[in-house]
Amino acid sequence: MYVTLAKNAQAETNVKHSKFIAFCFPVSDPDEAEDYVRGVKKQFPDATHAPYAYVTGENGEKFRASDDGEPSGTSGVPILETIKRQGLTYAAVVVVRYFGGIKLGTGGLARAYADAAEEAISVAGKASFDKCSVYFVKCEYSCYSTLQNKVISLGGQILSSDFDSGATLTVAIPIASSSAFLSFLADVSSGKATAEFVKEEYCSVR
């Protein structure tokens, strides 16, 4: 399982007349993270600096931080540490700064960038993803409500549904709960429901 950002978000903070505009994005890999960084820099070509950091990999094993011209260690690393402290991966944060004329010092800069990143992450919220087994399920319509409740209780989700002839569903169940789901399906339907394994993939879970 891993936790990432629930959506793209931005937040603006001001420290001693310097404006910090933080942007955060869920990303799938370093290339996508770099694309987002380039996009933000292009959007704010007159910004004083645009430090950034990102973390990818299921265990957060791939990461990068850039100070973008700020004193070494005062911006990119604080942003990176904020992402890690929030327990996130597959996440990128860029903080655009407009200098307000008052120097913040190295400690002040680090706090300002970390706070800006944390504010944007708070706006975005978090989403958890787990490796799931995806099944194609067919059952009588009378079983649908009970089946739906069980999927939810197991932390899974119904990806699609069709009721033209009984109930035909595509469901994603966390792998750890797959055996319990299949046993439940056999018990509740008295053998009248079928489940065909489709694939494994990461799915959003509650």
Number of helices: 5
- As for the number of domains, it is 2
Specify the CATH architecture of the largest domain.
2-Layer Sandwich
Overall outline = elongated
What is the H/E string? Answer: EEEHEEHEHEHEEHE
What average pLDDT do the residues reach?
93
Distance between the termini: 11 Å
Description of the molecule:
With 206 residues, this protein is an alpha+beta fold. Helices cover 32% and strands 38% of the residues. It folds into two domains: 2-124, Ribosomal Protein S5, domain 2, CATH 3.30.230; 128-205, Alpha-Beta Plaits. Strands 1, 7, 8, 9 and 10 form a five-stranded antiparallel beta sheet that branches. A hairpin with a 5-residue loop joins strand 4 (52-56) and strand 5. It starts with a strand and ends with a strand.
Topology of this protein?
Blueprint: E1 2-5, E2 9-15, E3 18-26, H1 30-43, E4 52-56, E5 62-66, H2 76-85, E6 91-98, H3 105-124, E7 126-139, H4 144-153, E8 157-162, E9 167-174, H5 178-189, E10 194-205
Antiparallel strand pairs: 1-7, 2-3, 3-6, 4-5, 4-6, 7-9, 7-10, 8-9
What are the salient characteristics of this protein?
5-stranded antiparallel β-sheet, alpha+beta, Alpha-Beta Plaits, 2 domains, Ribosomal Protein S5, domain 2, 206 residues, elongated, 32% helix
In short:
The chain has 206 residues and is α+β, with helices and mostly antiparallel strands. Helices cover 32% and strands 38% of the residues.
